[in-house]
Amino acid sequence: MNKNSNVFFGQIVKITSGERNFYARVVNARSSSTLETGEQLREAQGKETFGPYSSYKSIEAILFLEKHKGRIRSPTFNPNYMDKVIDTSSVDCSELRLEGELEIGRLRSGETVLGSVGINIDAIPYMMGMFGMTGSGKTNSELVLNAQIIDHSPMTVGVIFDFAGQLLEGKGIKPQKGLRDHPSFHTKVNYYSTKEDKMKIGLYTLTPGKLQTLFPEIGYPQFRFAQKLYKVFGTEWIEKSLEIFAGGGYKELGNKAGYGNKSVIEALMMKLQHLSSDIYPPSNYNFVDSVIENVSKGVTCLIDISGLVAEEQHRIVTLTATNVAQYYKKLWETNNEAWQKLPTLLITLEEAHEFLDPTKPRTIFSDIALTYRKYRIGLNAVTPRPSKINFDVFAELWTKVIMKTELSHDRRYLTENTPYLEYSDTEIKMLDIGEALLISEPKIRFAVPIKATHYPEYLDNKEPTDYHLPSSHAHAQMDARLKQIRKATDQVIMP
Ligand SMILES: Nc1ncnc2c1ncn2[C@@H]1O[C@H](COP(=O)(O)OP(=O)(O)OP(=O)(O)O)[C@@H](O)[C@H]1O
Ligand SMILES: [Mg+2]
Fold first, then answer.
1. Distances from the Cα of 213 to the Cαs of 269, 302, 381, in angstroms?
2. CATH number at 115-191+293-458
3. Which ligand has the shortest distance to the CA of 172?
4. Which residue in 25, 186, 194, 388 has a CA-CA distance of 20 to 30 Å to 427?
């Protein structure tokens, strides 16, 4: 090491080796001498002297990238003895080609940040995941990514399921920032929540098929019975069935539909009674239709399900995702031209482990992750517990943003099942808030250390939207004009 140069943990260094350039991250360092340990100790005690010897500092770094003839890839080889190493702050990091349309942060070399790092829009259908323990910066990363998606509307659009109610205006003791502060919020974002009375699923829109989405555990006999009721009563079948059931019990209801199995009838009615009139009023309005309409226009939908009981959250999330995904699929099958005009969709799902747990019943989200790529729908699975995500799904998440994770079980799952992360176990434990390792295949085929943009900072750097409205008169001028008008009206009113 040159006398005045400085190296620190996490720093990125560049090694020039013939035709190849290597990039490596410093992970360990050691000071020692050419003496053996025993000799060093005896010398230290002052009993004997050894020599001549040299003292030195050794630095360990993990190679993570190789550039050869303009191609960037994970290393195929290692540098030679005596190859020169230089620190990257003096290197043009645009040659690493880490930029993407959806900028989420900057390349991090130890404490310093370098060039921009982003995910390509093309990477959205290749599925994503954001992992990190409580407070590691997941919500912030979701905000930044979705803000970029809003910025790229109508090429991209988002559907966000917000379980903690933090994305609209942030949450915490101090005032925070959320999507409401995004300059395009009023034109490019629609907010749905039970608090603002916009999240309603009218009973008349619930066909037996949709009921199956709401209650995936519904058995075939109950579904058949629901179909019978639908045939007899039409769209008002739920309301009417519950009425008759309340008045005359299973017998009367069964008679109307020509069906006699007591336990099936009662099981179905139990489920229908679960649909609280707050969210499921007797009407023809279904907010999911509005979500679909907005999504197809490039308006990002923020669906706030905080404050609802877990089963209700589950039902709403599943119903919405299923219908939006089916809309894309159907258009792809029947009207390819119209499908091509649809924005590329990213569904952000917090608490993803709840929906992708291999020990729980399957949900729409594993289907999306495994088969909806061709319809240009991507899933962003956000969770502090990656090890609870079904392995097949986890393998399909080609973009991963990995933040600080302390639980060793989760860390092991991450490093064992993500390419290019084999040696990053300790690093994942040591990450600071907002720091992450990013992998985004096929473009970024190595773990890039990044510092995620802090959302308030992103907002500060953003130009306010220009709505091209004519500029208004100066305040003083308006005031004078108001006085004039007032005077004129006074004269008219008071004779
Ligand atoms: N890139 C960043 N730069 C600076 N501060 C950050 C960054 N990311 C997050 N923070 C701050 O760290 C705190 C925790 O972040 P955040 O809420 O995003 O974590 P989280 O992983 O979503 O936590 P939880 O699991 O509890 O939801 C917030 O106060 C946030 O402002
Ligand atoms: Mg969060």
1. 16, 21, 20
2. 3.40.50.300
3. 1
4. 388
